[in-house]
Amino acid sequence: MLAAFSNLGEMEAWHLTVYANQAVGVGGGLFQDGPVANLRNSVIAGNTGVNCTRWNTIASLGNNLEDSNSCQLTLIGDLPNTAPQLGPLQANGGVAPTHAPLAGSPAINSANAAECLVVDERQVPRPQGGACDIGAVEVSNNDVGVS
Question: Tens digit of pLDDT for each residue in 2-56?
Fold first, then answer.
């Protein structure tokens, strides 16, 4: 399954989690064939067929986490070659299953606080516990087995 694909225009991705997806060949996580994909406060990790494949530009807007360096994210706050320490895809609240950061995850409190979305995927307010978390899930005190 391909997690994110862009080929028509500029893509903006804030607090995206693209984790443990598969593709035959290239682009298991993010495949960029359009003008530019901008990533901010996002996790791209654990994907087969490399995390990022691009024909054009994948640009970091800062504070992204990747377990390899195929996305070549090098802006201040980016964490290339860093294991995200995410839990399994499961019901963590909200309408869709998510991968929540586990206790000790480098994603926790590592997003750019000035550029955080107001709520996470589950509609949990951001930030919780000081700074915003990188990725789709903001760890809160109500989460079991996290934080």
Answer: 354 545 667 788 999 999 988 776 667 877 666 778 899 999 999 987 888 766 6
Which of 2, 1, 5 shows the shortest CA–CA distance to 55? 5
Q: In terms of pTM, does the model score above 0.85?
A: yes
Rounded-to-integer distance, Cα 80 and Cα 66, Å: 5
Buried b (16+ CB within 10 A) or exposed e, 107-135: bbbbbbeeebeeebbbebebbbeebbbbb
Residues making up the chain, counted from first to last: 147
d(CA 88, CA 19): 10
89 exposure class (CB count in 10 Å sphere: 0-12, 13-18, 19+): middle
